[in-house]
Amino acid sequence: MNMSYFNNKMLELIPGIFVIPGNTNIGVITDKKDSLTEVYIVDSGNTEVDGEYILETLDEYFKFSNIEYKVKAIINTHAHADHCGGNAIIQKNTQCEVWASHFEKGSLENPNYHTSILWGAIAPKEIDTIYYRPEPCTFTKSFCENDEFLLSNGTKISYVHLPGHSFESYGILCTSTDGKNTLFAGDAIFPRTEIGKFNLPFTLDYSKFLDSLDKIGQIENLEWCIPGHGDFVSKNIHETIEINKISIYEIEICIMRLFKLNNKMSTDLVVKEVADAFDLKMNVRQYSLIHFTIKCFLTTLRNNGSLKMEISDNILYWKTK
User: Fold this and answer.
1) Which of 141, 142, 216, 254 is most buried, most CB within 10 Å of its CB?
2) Pairing state between β 181-186 and 264-266
């Protein structure tokens, strides 16, 4: 097939498994059944525009290939807005199902959870936008790590539990009949280019994020790892894992070094000092993301005994032991 026709809009990784590159990388899993090909879309981008682009790309590809197809389901790695923002428009146009882990169901059906969790309350208008609060969709099926299904060509689709970036992130693992694996990893790993772009990657629980990186590294015969954003990872998966770990440890070291200089700080002061250390100039949106991530680190350091909490003059302080 002449893939240049599509101007690299849809790339085949292994037989029947594709990726649509973009601000959010979209997986496409195809299952040929007699005269009809069923399609599973892995994540859907940030907005309705992304959803429309996915549908247009699928139409172009399958019409050019003279293949009748039907979108069977969207499989969400997690329910952050930049991975499920196209769900509603795709579901409206195709009547497809939406699959995700059970814990992500609430955010898919009630997107206000996105902004209220991020902000800690009803969000201001700077946060309450389509980039943080997608249109709601209808959740139809949950999955867990032991679930799997087979495609007609023998490729096995299974789920790898990769929490840390969000509550219940999952990678979608495609194992071909020769044992080679392709992983749609969501935001459980970031390529070098994304790590360099964002010094403080958004994290809910960084200890679980580190565990998930180790889990990715243990997948045998991993030919392709497709992060949610940025470059695909092929032969250098362990190097990419180490780069991600280093970025996490740098934040932890930075925070603990700050507490050596000042052993009692409020959350806002820690956020300021870390942002200054990484030479960041924040707007309201960036502040909300970084504040959330720094609180994740402070909480983990509190829970592992490195820091303690204290209320003084009605202000919450973090202190070294």
Assistant:
1) 216
2) unpaired
To which residue do tokens 């029947």 refer?
16
CA-based nearest residue to 252, from 298, 195, 313, 319: 298
Long-range contacts of 237-246 (CB under 8 A, 24+ apart): 240/189, 240/190, 240/191, 240/192, 241/189, 241/213, 241/214, 241/216, 241/217, 243/192, 243/195, 244/189, 244/190, 244/195, 244/201, 244/213, 245/210, 245/213
Identify residue 81 by its one-letter amino acid code.
A
Pairing label, strands 181-186, 222-227: parallel
pTM for this entry: 0.95
Q: Going residue by residue through the chain, which has 321 residues, state the pLDDT in tens, using 9 for 90 and above.
A: 334 445 579 999 999 999 999 999 999 999 999 889 999 999 999 999 999 999 999 999 999 889 999 999 999 999 999 999 999 999 999 999 999 999 999 999 999 998 999 999 999 999 999 889 999 999 999 999 989 999 999 999 999 999 999 989 999 999 999 999 999 999 999 999 898 777 788 999 999 999 999 999 999 999 999 999 999 999 889 999 999 999 999 999 999 999 999 999 999 999 999 999 999 999 999 999 999 999 999 999 999 999 999 999 999 999 997
